Amino acid sequence: MRHKTLLVLFAAVLPLDGGAAHARAAAAESTPAVALESTMVPRVRGGEVREVGLAGSLAETLKQVGSRERGPLWFAWEVAATPSLGNSCCFDDKFRGCACRLEAKNQSWGSQDKRPGSGRELVLARWSNGAVERVRGFSSTCELDTGGLLLVHLTGVQPADSVALLEDLARRPSEKRHGDSEPLAVLAYHAGRAADEALHRLAGADRSIDDRDQPLFWIGQARGEDGARFLAGVAHDDPSPEIRQKAIFSLSQNDGPSAIPAIIDVAKTDHDPDVRSQALFWLAQSGAEQAPKVILARLDEDPSLEVRKQAVFAITQLKDHQSVPLLMRIAREPRDREIRQQALFWLGQSTDPRAIDFFAKILGQ
To answer: Where do the domains of the chain lie?
Structure first.
């Protein structure tokens, strides 16, 4: 079973300048449905909300409005969201739904159910000292707590401007220094080709391995089948084994129909034993129906002893009702001594009654 992890995000100071031309050009060709604007005013607990129409570009409007206000404030605007955003809102320390505290340094957020949500993402940008200091993104129906700060609700924002702003923020050196992935997370849930292409650029082979890590992660989390196809290409063709392994993990988190077949293909064909081993591990973790059969086949066919050992470990990551019988079968069969030892070792770590009975019968012989 795949799990989307609730995330704890931290603030980073992100200077603002012009948008990315690539994103604007791509969004200009996007479908009209992506550009539709909601008129819903954000739900804010205790704080002033002011509505302002866009004047020029998004970046220009932020600067104009931000320069007129004393002290920090939050901007908010809406864009069409990917289905993966669902009903993502905030939780308290007991994982109960609550208002999203924008001034909190960390707060868990995510979606705990399968409700589709509003189909809109509410983008929030904290403005302070002439710059965007932080960005966050939630379902547009979430209740907000601005900590008493003014919230300026912008109308007329085009997806192209939003994508361009977030891509620029994601590229800032300060974003890397603070280890913050908020701009990428918010960008990843923007619907449309412009966001796809921006994320592909951020994960591109011309960037460093460290810079590609988080874009690959968010493509897996949020981009559905389009993301799965992109990640499959990276997992199959990228020259870096480390990047191929990162792409495999992201595929294991993706719900697109081609994600699991792509992992299986890598497990069978990649020339690097470590990459094949990782593919088997994440295949087992995914809970895919075909995982046991594929892993057993690699146990028989992979030329690397280390991969075959890792295949045994991958079996331990299956559900108990699958893993224990398979480990007992491997331990009984006439295989490499080391493979059988691996199976016996992992059976010995299990508290499953079947494993205990298995050892009792062996010792009683």
So the answer is: 21-202
